[in-house]
Automatic annotation (TrEMBL):
Membrane-spanning residues: 38-56, 131-148, 168-186, 261-286, 292-312, 356-375
Keywords from the UniProt entry: Membrane, Olfaction, Receptor, Sensory transduction, Transducer, Transmembrane, Transmembrane helix
GO molecular function: odorant binding; olfactory receptor activity
Species annotation: Conopomorpha sinensis (litch fruit borer)
Protein name per Swiss-Prot or TrEMBL: Odorant receptor
Amino acid sequence: MMFYIKSKSAILGVVLTILKFGGLWCPSEFKGSFRKLYYVYSFMLFLFILGSYMICQSVSLCQIWGNLPLMTNVACVLLTDTVQVIKMANLLFKRNRIQRLIDDVEMVLTMPYGPEERNIITTIEHALQRLTFFFVMLTYFTIGGWAGSAEKGQLPVLAWYPYDTTRYPAYALTYAHQIGSIYMSATLNMSKDMLAVTLISLTGCRLQLVNYELRNFLNDLEPDPETGLLTAAQEATAIDRLRVCVRSHQMALRAAKEIEACFSLPIFAQFSVSLCIICVTAFQLATIDNPMLFVAFLFYLFNMIYQVYIYCYQGNEIVEQSTSLVDAAYASPWHRTSTAVRRRLLFLMMRSRKPVIIKAGGITTVTLQTFMAIVKTSYSLFTLLQDVEDNQAN
């Protein structure tokens, strides 16, 4: 078994390797008993990272029910863990479909492109790496703030345990378990998010490549000086190239539909929970006195907003690239071609007028408009929580 899963996309390779060791991406070479052992390993790791931790948090939430500041404190992490479980289940059940998506992307990335097309792919890959780096920094700064904010004898995250956590060595072991499980679950959560985001981004890349090919598919074909039109042989070449563009466009559309089928539910769950978490985290910031904890929750707030943003930004890029196909086709020197080529080009332009939109849960579009709507709704819920807290205080 290889330690690192090789991929033409650096981000995909890192993400799949992390998921493999996190028990969420069974190596394809594992068969029979090895595959069963891998899933046993997955279950045990789940219990260590999330299972026992979520039970302790749920019991704690029941105990503090009615205390709004403490409830929102526990709810932040518990809601995040709940979405994690949904993402894990989705990844395990749809592993084969996602693998086919990845194989399709790998095939596109290995095609013999020219320098301009390679530059498009490299630019998008570098942009993905920057997005991932910033995501990782935000996440680990948040966890570091939580780890350092715990006062003497207290745990970083409020949770119930069936023993006295204020005495040693129980306190040290519980503290280590909390921080370790948070770091591991956060790393897996980022990997699951970046898997979906990378596939969305590379689908946008495919559409951008179609744009480039469509804009330039006639550039090296010089028309007849007398007629100003292409020769019969050039017409045949132009039609063949246009067929390739149409085929690439159709493959990109199928990839977008398959991404929606594979990730629609977890993205919708993430959006729904992020809406609540942004609200309760902002509420926590208004009530926290501990400076270190304030910084930790501030990073957590930025993290939750950014987590929604990267989905919506990449989804919006697909919309932009799919609609710009009309402009790309019109920008080509179509006036050199015959009616037959123009008719084919016009048909492609008509098809491209309908934007490619990925939906979450079949309801919400993964676009920047949705991102703004989530932030605005979170703020409205935040003001409502503040009113409830003020009424309780009075």
